[in-house]
Structure to design on (433 residues):
């Protein structure tokens, strides 16, 4: 039977065993690409993300005058513009990447010139109003198309602000920080729920001074940035799929080397521990202010228990919730997710698609506006999965398929290459069949 390239057949596995090195963290790669392109000097990175999203950021920065030289499959050398970009003659194409569009807007708003940002069909549906409000409060001029991309920025000098984010968003916070970096005075962002802090740590690595309190972050401007050399840690959001696969099989043993273990991202390890997984972290060290370590995981002999995810935890785990929902039927007591309305405006409506695909595999699931209840103790069967062109849905249900009865066909499997082109090959490497 021949299967189109857009589809992938996943067969059940007997166990998950082995060790892997994972591609560079996408969140950190985006920020290193932007900051090095904006800095003075030449930065060099190894284990840079191989996903299409980070390639979109590199292409945008090259269009703005930075020199981007791919020195290997996952290594890149970037010569920065020393704080002054060249307006591009064509629109900047952010592809599928919300991170690129939202963060680069903050970088460009204080720069002289007109900049237009575009994206693919999926990105053109995602909400951009959330960056317009703070940037306009700083004096920027942004034109959106019904709250979405295409987005045009007429850049110029801004004023510092004190801003409270209405929705927890690391991208919005980063957007304001990048504008504040270039703006006279002190810009402060306050958030009710602390979001991932890669931008603050990266700005410090590039020489900027950033001040934090329990619920705020401030940056004074203008400040110059200076080039760095760094190895990007392995992506914990990519690791999530393998960690969740390992907890499905009593007797599993998986080692993931040099993974980024930033505390604002590592909540997944707490959730898996709560489900009964045995996790140890080895060789923990700090590199450019980011924590990096080796993670070893094995499943409990008696199987997984149950857990509830809501509030601040749901915001911190937003990328990992689809795969947790996908493995929930295999727990003994189920997983309940609330406070995750943001999942409905990601690359797809991830709540609706998770529920649809769980039902396709024969699971019971209850869908709520802001989450899901997935009972435990269920047996799933192979099915045809609709990924909705969303990389995280495609990968989450590839994991669920490992414990299902019969084969599962993932439609739209090519979407995984957006964030993680090596995913299926690495999954095959550790799945014992």
């Amino acid at each position: 039977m021949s299967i189109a390239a857009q589809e992938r057949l996943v067969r059940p596995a007997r166990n998950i065993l082995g060790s892997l090195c994972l591609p560079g963290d996408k969140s950190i790669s985006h920020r290193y690409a932007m900051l090095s392109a904006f800095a003075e000097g030449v930065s060099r990175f190894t284990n840079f993300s191989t996903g299409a999203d980070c390639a979109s950021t590199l292409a945008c920065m090259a269009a703005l005058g930075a020199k981007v030289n791919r020195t290997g499959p996952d290594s890149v050398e970037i010569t920065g513009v020393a704080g002054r970009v060249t307006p591009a003659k064509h629109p900047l194409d952010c592809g599928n990447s919300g991170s690129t569009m939202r963060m680069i807007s903050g970088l460009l708003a204080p720069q002289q010139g007109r900049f237009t940002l575009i994206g693919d069909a999926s990105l053109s549906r995602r909400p951009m109003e959330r960056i317009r409000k703070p940037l306009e409060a700083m004096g920027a001029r942004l034109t959106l198309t019904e709250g979405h991309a295409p987005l045009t920025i007429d850049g110029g000098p801004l004023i510092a602000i004190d801003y409270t984010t209405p929705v927890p968003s690391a991208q919005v916070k980063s957007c304001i920080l990048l504008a504040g970096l270039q703006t006279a005075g002190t810009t402060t962002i306050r958030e009710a729920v602390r979001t991932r802090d890669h931008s603050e740590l990266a700005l410090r690595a590039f020489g900027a001074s950033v001040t934090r309190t329990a619920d705020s972050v401030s940056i004074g401007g203008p400040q110059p940035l200076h080039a760095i050399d760094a190895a990007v840690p392995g992506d914990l959001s990519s690791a999530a799929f393998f960690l969740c696969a390992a907890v499905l099989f009593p007797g599993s043993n998986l080692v993931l080397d040099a993974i980024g273990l930033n505390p604002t991202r590592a909540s997944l390890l707490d959730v898996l521990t709560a489900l009964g997984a045995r996790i140890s972290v080895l060789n923990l060290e700090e590199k450019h202010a980011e924590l990096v370590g080796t993670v070893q995981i094995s499943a409990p002999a008696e199987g997984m228990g149950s857990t509830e995810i809501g509030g601040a935890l749901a915001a911190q785990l937003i990328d990992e919730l689809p795969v947790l929902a996908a493995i929930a039927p295999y727990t003994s007591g189920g997983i309940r997710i609330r406070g995750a309305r943001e999942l409905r405006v990601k690359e797809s409506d991830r709540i609706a698609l998770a529920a649809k695909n769980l039902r396709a595999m024969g699971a019971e699931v209850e869908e709520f506006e802001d989450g899901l209840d997935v009972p435990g103790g269920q047996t799933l069967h192979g099915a045809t999965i609709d990924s909705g062109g969303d990389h995280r849905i495609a990968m989450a249900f590839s994991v669920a398929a490992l414990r299902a009865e019969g084969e599962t066909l993932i439609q739209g499997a090519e979407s995984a290459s957006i964030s993680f082109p090596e995913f299926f090959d690495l999954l095959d490497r550790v799945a014992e069949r």
In short: Residues 131 and 360 are 37 Å apart (CA to CA). The chain has two domains: 7-24+233-432, 26-230. The longest strand covers residues 278-287.
